[in-house]
Design a protein that fits this description.
With about 150 residues, the chain is mainly beta. The protein is about 10% helix and about 50% strand. The strands form 3 sheets. The protein has a 4-stranded antiparallel sheet, with no helix packed on it. Strands 7-8-9-10 form a 4-stranded antiparallel sheet, with no helix packed on it.
């Protein structure tokens, strides 16, 4: 209800909160998450009540098998790094606040996601948008296509 996406681990401990000032106080109505790329970063896209779309990138969140292997190691540095310092870095990539005129009811990553990130979103009035996101040098760029 506050516009943020909260990420929890398997034991229901909060890992991090994803938010942007453009969506503060605007409830999240739908979201999708996907591991993308060779580095297997996690991308999260959220749709909001007033038509905004926000994209976040999470780096350093280990897959369960890798996390368990690191926890069972005898290397005290790895355990301290995982438990005390944490490996997670969260980046807000982009918020589009003019994509939909009304509440977004569904959102999903689509395509092969190798060249760019593609997201399809639909609102309660039936408007469907396909948006391509590219990670540029200094900013995350977006191109939107209206689907009829």
């Amino acid at each position: 209800s506050d516009g943020s996406v909260r990420l929890f681990d398997h034991s229901e401990q909060e890992i991090t909160i994803l938010t942007d000032k453009k969506v503060k106080g605007v409830p999240v109505t739908c979201l999708d998450m996907k591991r993308i790329g060779e580095e297997k970063h996690i991308y999260i896209v959220s749709g909001h009540m007033k038509g905004q779309v926000a994209v976040y990138k999470i780096e350093g969140l280990l897959e369960q098998q890798e996390f368990l292997a690191r926890q069972n190691t005898d290397n005290p540095f790895l355990k301290a790094q995982d438990n005390l310092l944490g490996n997670i870095h969260v980046k807000h990539c982009k918020t589009l606040d003019d994509l939909h005129p009304t509440t977004i009811s569904c959102i999903s990553f689509v395509g092969d996601l190798t060249a760019q990130i593609q997201v399809i979103s639909g609102d309660v009035k039936g408007l469907i948008q396909l948006t391509e996101f590219r990670d540029g040098t200094f900013r995350f760029k977006a191109t939107t296509y209206c689907l009829m």
